[in-house]
Amino acid sequence: MSDVKKLMYVNRRAPYGTIYAWESLEVVLIGAAFDQDVSLAFLDDGVYQLTKGQNTEDTGMKNFSATYAALGDYEVTKIYVEKDSLDERGLLLDDLQHLVWEDEDEDWAEKDSIRLVSRAELADLMADQDIMFNF
Questions:
Q1: Which of the four pLDDT bands, split at 50, 70 and 90, describes residue 39?
Q2: How many helices (H) and strands (E) does the chain have?
Q3: CATH at residue 45
Q4: pLDDT tens string 41-62
Q5: Nearest-5° Cα angle at 128, 127 to 132
Q6: CA-to-CA distance for 75 and 26, rounded, in angstroms?
Q7: Residue 115 belongs to some domain of the structure
Q8: 93 and 51 in contact (C-beta within 8 Å)?
Q9: Which residues contact 40 (CB under 8 A, 6 or more apart)?
Q10: Higher pLDDT, 120 or 35
Q11: Among 32, 54, 96, 110, which one is least packed by beta carbons within 10 Å?
Q12: How confident is the model at residue 17 (pLDDT cuts 50, 70, 90)?
């Protein structure tokens, strides 16, 4: 039996105003460093964490949104965004950062990390996890 656990980090909150989004990103990077099967889910206001052009000047918080671009380097390649949450907020896939990873089996070809999923598909993915962390 494998010691590798399927870990899903579920992000439901806006990126600034609380520490949840930043803490989620930190523990994702830690989990990935320990060779776990890491995936992220963004739903509800959590979809704002991946939007382009974030400006935190008036929040008093550091803008950490560029850190998401490093996820591929940590082999975090499964980023699920609930399409219904995007639709409800008037957002499109083009409003999100372009997150990629390099596939060494295909001569380091860049591949998209973000996968749009329905609520039902996300529920199925969640049911398949060993451990889930909610932020």
A1: very high
A2: 3, 7
A3: 3.40.1260.10
A4: 999 999 999 999 998 888 888 8
A5: 70
A6: 15
A7: yes
A8: no
A9: 8, 9, 10, 11, 24, 28, 71, 76, 78, 79, 80
A10: 120
A11: 110
A12: confident
> Residue 1 falls within a domain, yes or no?
no
CB 48 within 8 A of CB 90: no
What are the structure tokens assigned to 86, written together?
């995007």
Give residue 52's domain range.
6-134
Distance CA 46, CA 79 (A): 12
Query: Number of folded domains in the chain?
Result: 1
Q: What average pLDDT is seen over the chain?
A: 92
pTM: 0.92
Chain position carrying tokens 């609380």: 18
> Which H helix or E strand runs over 131?
strand 131-134
SS3 129: coil
